[in-house]
Design a protein that fits this description.
This protein is an alpha/beta fold. The protein contains 11 helices and 10 strands. The chain has helices at 46-53, 76-83, 101-111, 116-129, 145-158, 175-192, 203-209, 227-232, 240-247, 257-266, 268-275, and strands spanning 2-11, 20-30, 35-39, 61-66, 69-70, 86-89, 163-167, 195-199, 212-217, 220-226. It is globular. Bound molecules: adenosine-5'-triphosphate. Residues 11, 20, 22, 40, 42-48, 201 line the site of adenosine-5'-triphosphate (ATP). This is D-methionine transport system ATP-binding protein.
């Protein structure tokens, strides 16, 4: 579904200073319907890599192919259209404070070119998915952190994306709220089959919802493994953060990807209605 081919991102230095290579020749394939985690210490290049996927940060070189479309080869108009297939949520929610929850979601539909008459209903549907139908008229200041992130998830889902990109989605939330937001992300992945990439430095996020992990170090992917292989002992991490993950208590049960795909296929009518997949 997502294929990064030799992606590099170099930031030029200011007047005489050396530049910086934040992402260095990364190849990564993310299977359809899976949840890919990207972990690593601060400054490893995780956020830049995530922003490379929707070209919010255009790579200096390499290709980004999503669902068979090479985004790096598109012109501005083509990219604008394809971007609606890629929803994104951020650590600090990025909601407009002078708009209600409903209006925040409707705005993304407007940018996606959805006709005005459809926007209200689709925004309401998206808010229902995250159980915030009753807070549609609330302004962000009246919502908790978890509710704000759920509005942001609704905003990302409203355009019926194939991919959901999550940049530290729970870092600004307390542990209980983190659990609830992760549950929504896991449910949405399971119900709608949306391919998800989560950048995080929280091992709880990895333990709870991720299928595969890519560990980044200095702009490169230092190692990759399936969380199940880590659990079963079939994979022994060599990176510091990978070993740290191993020591953490992995006890949460996950429905295997193949079973989730069968579930999505069996519920394809509902899934099509919600995600147009
Ligand atoms: N626009 C930019 N211009 C110059 N350097 C940048 C830019 N964006 C990121 N960097 C640098 O690239 C490196 C990787 O940044 P990035 O935000 O991708 O790392 P990260 O792994 O997500 O870190 P964190 O966990 O702290 O968010 C950092 O050293 C950062 O300072």
């Amino acid at each position: 579904m997502i294929s990064l081919r030799n992606v590099s991102t170099h930031f030029a230095g200011k007047r005489g200073e050396d530049g910086f290579t934040a992402v260095d020749d990364v190849c990564l394939d993310v299977p359809a319907g899976s949840i890919q985690g990207v972990i690593g210490f601060s400054g490893a290049g995780k956020s830049t890599l995530l922003r490379n996927i929707n070209l919010l940060e255009r790579p200096t070189s390499g290709q980004v192919v999503v669902d068979g479309v090479d985004l790096t080869a598109l012109d501005d108009e083509g990219l604008r259209r394809e971007r609606h297939q890629l929803g994104m949520i951020f650590q600090h929610f990025n909601l407009l404070n002078n708009r209600t929850a409903q209006e925040n979601v409707e705005l993304s539909l407007k940018f996606a070119g959805v006709p005005k008459r459809e926007r209200r209903e689709r925004a309401a549907e998206a808010l229902e998915i995250v159980d915030l139908g009753d807070r549609a008229r609330s302004y962000p200041a009246k919502l908790s952190g978890g509710q704000k992130q759920r509005v942001a998830i609704a905003r990302a889902l409203a355009t019926k994306p194939k991919v959901l990109l999550c940049d530290e989605p729970t870092s600004a939330l307390d542990p209980r709220t983190t659990g609830s937001v992760l549950q929504y992300l896991a449910d949405i992945n399971q119900q709608l089959g949306i391919t998800t990439v989560v950048v995080t430095h929280e091992l709880d996020v990895v333990k709870n919802i991720v299928d595969d992990v890519a560990v980044m170090e200095a702009g490169r992917i230092a190692e990759r493994f399936a969380v199940d292989d880590l659990r079963s002992g079939a994979f022994q991490p060599t990176t510091e953060i990978g070993r740290y993950l191993l020591d953490a208590d992995l006890h949460i049960k996950r429905v295997p990807l193949a079973e989730r795909r069968r579930h999505v296929a069996a519920n394809s009518t509902a899934a099509k209605e919600l995600a147009h997949v």
